Amino acid sequence: MFSRLIGAAALAGCAAAAQAVPIEFQFSYTGFYDKVADRFDPAALIAGSFIADDLNGDGLFAKEELISFKHNGSNDYIGCGVGEQYYWKCTIDRFGYRIGSPLKFATTWSITDVAYQVNSSTITGEEYVYNYRSANGVDTRGWLWTDQTRFAIEAVNAVPEPLSLALLAIGAAGLGMARRRRRAGPR
User: Fold this and answer.
1) What is the pLDDT of residues 19-43, one digit of tens each?
2) Which of 109, 136, 138, 153 is deepest in the core (most CB within 10 A)?
3) What is the pTM of this model?
4) Is 71:60 a contact under the CB 8 Å cutoff?
5) Which NCBIfam families match (predicted)?
């Protein structure tokens, strides 16, 4: 009886100690309506990556759980505007991803220098806007999400958590011991 209590306590302790680990995801959206060209562009691409840790274990990667976020060749949105990146400003206004669901985010970024200014904003499911201004002119792009826009995402380093594997091993060992006891019969 006492050994069962110890075994149950050990399993409960391992389960309580198991924590999520950061996972890196790579994502892409392909195919947008190009506002400037006034047509659908199937090759238009927004791609990026993020690293997040589901700290509260609710299955939703939220803005507060982001460790890194990049898209369209940008610098990391986490920690931007600090140190040598003082000229680069960015915001992540909204972010959320649940495995098996669409990725949702709203971001802005801008770079201002003496010779030029660049700013961009992305709201998934709605619009991507890019503006470049210099003494030589203005370059503006605008893409709209459509029903033809395709989303893809994959976890780059999705591996089982070490403590989850430990729980599996403990469970298998417990089953093996119970089986041996049954075979041995009462003493």
Assistant:
1) 468 999 999 999 999 999 999 999 9
2) 109
3) 0.71
4) no
5) PEP_CTERM (TIGR02595)
Q: Report the alpha-carbon angle 36-39-43, nearest 5.
A: 95
Hunting for tokens 């990391």 — which residue is that? 76
State how far the alpha carbon of 70 is from the alpha carbons of 22, 46, 49, 64, 81, in Å.
16, 11, 5, 15, 14
Ranges of each domain in the chain: 23-160
Q: Which residues contact 44 (CB under 8 A, 6 or more apart)?
A: 30, 31, 32, 34, 143
Identify the segments of the chain with pLDDT beneath 70.
Answer: 1-20, 83-86, 158-187
Residue that the structure tokens 């203005």 belong to: 138
Phi and psi (nearest 5°) for 135? Answer: -65, -25
> Tokens 């041995």 correspond to what residue?
184
Q: Which pair of structure tokens corresponds to residue 136?
A: 């030589």
129 close to 145: Cβ distance less than 8 angstroms: no
